[in-house]
Amino acid sequence: MMAAKSGLLRNGFRMAFRRLGAGAPLLLGFVLLGGWTGEATAAAKANRFPKPEFEVRYAMPHTTTPGARLLFHEYVDVAVLIVTLMLASYLALRARNRRGIWLLSLFSILYFGFWRKGCVCPIGSIQNVTEALTDSTYVIPFAVVLFFLIPILFTLLFGRTFCAAVCPLGTIQDVFAYRPKKIPSWLAAPLEVLPYMYLALAVLFVWTGTDYIICRYDPFIGFYRMDGSFGMLITGALFLLGGMVVARPYCRFLCPYGVILGWASRVARRHVTITPDECINCRLCEEACPFGAIQKPTLEPVPEKLEVGRRRLILLLVLLPVCVLAGASAFSAVSVPLSKSHATVALAERVQLEDEGKVKDTTLETDAFRSTGQTKADLLAQAQAVRASFRTGCRWAGGVLGLVAGFVLVGYSVVRHRKEYEIDTERCLSCARCFEFCPKEHEARRKESGRVRT
Amino acid sequence: MSAPSVTPGPRIWRAYVAGAAAGVALFTLLMATAMLIVYARSRLSDPLNDPAMLAMRAKFMENPDDAAMKTAIRKRDFEVRKDFFVAAWRLDSGAWMLGLASAVTVILMGVLVTSREPEPDPERYAMEEGTWTAQASSRRGVAAFAVTVLLLLILAALVWGKRTELKYGPDSGGTPPAAGR
Fold first, then answer.
1. Which of A65, B97, B128, B167 has its CA 20 to 30 A from that of A14?
2. Residues β-bridged to residue A30
3. Which of B5, B6, B14, B16 to mutate to test binding with chain A, by most A CBs within 10 Å of its CB?
4. Which of A205, A69, A213 shows the shortest CA–CA distance to A135?
5. Do B16 and A17 form a contact (C-beta atoms < 8 A)?
């Protein structure tokens, strides 16, 4: 009966299209265009007494944070987050329903994206949590803590179901994944190190009190808020267009929250599986995953290759401290240029240059500083302190990144023997695409529908 | 003899979706072009620096009792302000329509593209790299990337690492230039 109903629905849409014709959207488009021009005349009449004292040279700053909301609404958002995560986990693990995941993704785009303007999102909450841990004067809203922790908790229980259908940044990219191509491993592997670098930079910039770079350089927030700088809107459009051939590029190669979820997913209590039953190695799911998260079974390696591999692994483990030192040194060497992104350091350097006569003009910022009455000595002391924190932070960030690079190399040197097709629990986004490719899945569905009929 | 089917086949369905997608895509293109034109024109026309109005103001300053000139200035001022706000309204509403039309275009294209999924064909990928080869190329890729990043950081430090010496104290030297740009 359900199959008959859905068939009727499909036929209904087809009949509607037949009647309307494909020209209807074109006609509607021209009507809208004409209406837009006509309405402009009405708007002109409405503006017969326009606002006085406007300044065309003034550029309104683009919004980086949404308007204030009631506390009650924030907790409603937390409740919606929990419900959507529960639904996503159920749809991915229990119901094994790709269509349900897709529909939930659309809801997430509309609610967490367009309605809530993409803020607060768990990805940006990394910065709030970092600031709360490093700055004793900062009071983090409880809702933000929940937004940070709840997806991690669900990932520990069920895998990356947050990424599947809840994250507004991921789901909007998923809509565009039409014909994803497989990226060669020599390119995918280094790109997967970028999220660690982005996470390190984000933490560094928050720790030094510079900026929330995850929010500032969010490529999709401009679409959700219908406002943003031209550069970021173009970047977002490029991400979405690129997402047509490289599935979810931001999630796989930039998302700093994905680093945390990936670690959590590795130790998840339960996880999505390709097959609901035992894998029969039919190979049909081999190319099912657009994110490269399906691991093929391996043959037994020959003893000579094992020996070479063992030596390589020992060498890499010995070189780990070298990687840490190299990373720390290289990053601390760029601490000075990085520190210039801090407003205090930039101001202090500019004031210094102006006082030494190396630059002719003053800037608005230096004029404002001189009119505040603050002494130059105070400003320079603050700038020195920021530079010192950047030096320390860069050493730590570089050391950690060196360690990460070393461990990634170690990971690619470890031989794991697999007898069947398995999911890479770190990479798998629980999108449920692979289910359709599994004959065991279809068999299970047929049995289920047969059981329902009887 | 069975009754003919009243439902169009999959090919006709795809044709309709393709037509709709083309229509909406054309609308999107037209809207984007129109908005670009409006944006360019609004950038070029500054209501406060309208040449005609500036000329009228200069004439008015020579003869402040000219009531007709005063009326003309007010009329011109109203027109340029009206144009400015109309352009702003158009850009705002046009952005909404462009966004919606783009979304509909994308969804229709997605329906079109995914309505014909290719059958899985494992034999086609029989010559693809095995797991060990993939791991080896991944290692080389990560190592090359790490070395590249290190070299870039060193280069950045050499090029941009020039520090402005932050001296502070009464003898920090020099006097600030006159305030203002």
1. B97
2. none
3. B16
4. A205
5. yes
From chain A, pick out residues whose CB is under 8 angstroms from the CB of B110: 175-176, 178
CA distance A414 to A154: 29
Nearest C-alpha neighbor of B23 from the set B33, B13, B11, B15 = B15
Query: Do residue A355 and residue B18 have CB atoms under 8 angstroms apart?
Result: no
Is there a contact between A190 and B48 if contact means CB atoms under 8 Å apart?
no
> Would you state the pLDDT for residue A309?
82
Yes or no: say if A227 and A61 are a contact pair by the CB < 8 Å rule. Answer: no
- Identify any residues that bridge with A422 across adjacent strands, giving them in sequence order: A295
Contact indicator for A405, A193 with CB cutoff of 8 Å: yes
The per-residue pLDDT for range A58-117, each reduced to its tens digit, is 555 555 566 667 788 888 999 999 999 999 999 999 999 999 999 999 999 999 998 888
pLDDT in tens, B33-80: 888 887 777 776 777 778 888 888 888 888 888 888 888 888 888 888
Q: What ipTM goes with this model? A: 0.76
Q: B153: buried, middle or exposed (CB in 10 Å: 19+, 13-18, 0-12)? A: buried
Please answer yes or no on whether B129 and A56 come within 8 Å at the CB atom.
no
Q: How far is CA B72 from the centre of its chain?
A: 39
The residue of A13, A56, A174, A404 whose CB has the most chain B CBs within 10 angstroms, and thus the best one to mutate to test that interface, is: A56
Total beta-carbon pairs less than 8 A apart between chain A and chain B = 238
Taking only the tens place, the pLDDT of each residue in B134-174 is 888 899 999 999 999 999 998 888 888 766 666 654 444 44
User: Omega before A120 cis (within 30°)?
Assistant: yes
Specify whether the CB–CB gap between B136 and A309 falls below 8 A.
no
- In this structure, chain B runs to a length of 181
Task: Note the pTM of the prediction, 2 decimals.
Answer: 0.73
User: What pLDDT is recorded for position A360?
Assistant: 83
Question: CA-CA distance, B21 to B27, in Å (whole number)?
Answer: 10
Q: Is A337 in contact with B160 (Cβ distance < 8 A)?
A: yes
pLDDT of residue B176: 44
CA–CA separation, B167 and B181 (whole Å):
25
- What does the pLDDT look like over B75-94, one tens digit per residue? 888 888 888 888 878 777 88
Residue of B nearest to A366 (CA): B179
